[in-house]
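Entry 12.
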Amino acid sequence: GYVTMNTLVFADELVAAERTLIQLCESNVDAILVQDLGLARLAEKVCPQLPVHASTQMSMTSGECIQVAAELNVKRVVLARELSIDEIKEIHAHCDMELEAFVHGALCVAYSGQCLTSESLGGRSANRGQCAQACRLPYELICDGKDVDLGDIKYLLSPQDLAAFELLPRMLEAGVTSFKIEGRLKTPEYVANITRHYRRALDDATNGLPVDISDRDVEEMELSFSRGFSPGWLNGCDHKMLVPGLSSAKRGVLIGTVARAKGRIIQVHLTAGLAAGDGIVFSGDRAADEEQGGRVFSVHRLGRRITKRIESGLIDIRIVNDPIDSSRLYEGQQVWKTDDPALKKRLQKSFHGRPTRKIAVDIRVTAVEGQPLFVEAQTSDSQCWQGSTTESLPTAKRHVVDKEYLRQ
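Predicted 3D structure (tokens):
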């Protein structure tokens, strides 16, 4: 369990910061993530036994930066998201530090840890955990005093999300020892979904197998959250790819285009899976709040109602409980799936109820008449526990305690 203390600390907050460091140390956290060099130095003096990781907010972009972090007794560095795999490889060749790198999640147009936009525009510092998401707003482009007509391109500072599952083998080879999935303000379903796919992809990569992520897997990840997936800067700079500028919010999965619309029946050329109950939205000017959407009440093909997920073809969908102005829909308009209740239900099952991950455990029980029952347990990863009853064991009258009884 890691704890983030990765905001800049002001001088009048040092006493409170010191108190927090001591509390975390006494709580046996595994490490803290720090941006502020002064806080890293304070942690070294107050609780030297508490491991410190350099947050991506510390802007670790070179071997020279990492050398300074090493002098502050930092054990691991979360690299800046702007680095390419080749640059990570070069850094690894010149330092012994544990390197952690982002593989999935939101990207920012500002350099990691150096965003001043939110502070300058709205007085909310991103380096104090208060980012106002200024990069997700629509902007106009003015060149030499003249407006530039960019058509539908309005979100000039909003990068697509990072999705590096295919790059895991190269990142391992480059020296990355820990992979980081951004999860700020995300749901439990997002965590269950994304970590499951990356766990499997990482297992494939470490076993020398090709990373096997199917189109359906990608669709599931996009439904949890996606502004469009990209490799970020890991393959180098390709700014036009990274910032297409058409949207800044979660889009979901592109499932087809409108063929025609009349009343509450919309005919769609379907290119990806859809079922009754799914949420959809028809593309439009989101900045002007002109997008329409709703939940699919039923799906029909050739007059017959389809009760299961359908993958492709010309279909009719009915939207009953949400207001749709079909006169505003047009042929060729994109249709996006934004919600999949069946997927959400399946993900919730993965973290509700009993844990699904099991490990082996050896248990040693000592049962002696007139003495407390004593139990020792050790897991396959060497975690130990022991305990005993408060009362001594009486003499057996009917059933003697045997191995099978204890096993049950």
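Annotation: The longest strand covers residues 253-262. The mean pLDDT is 92.
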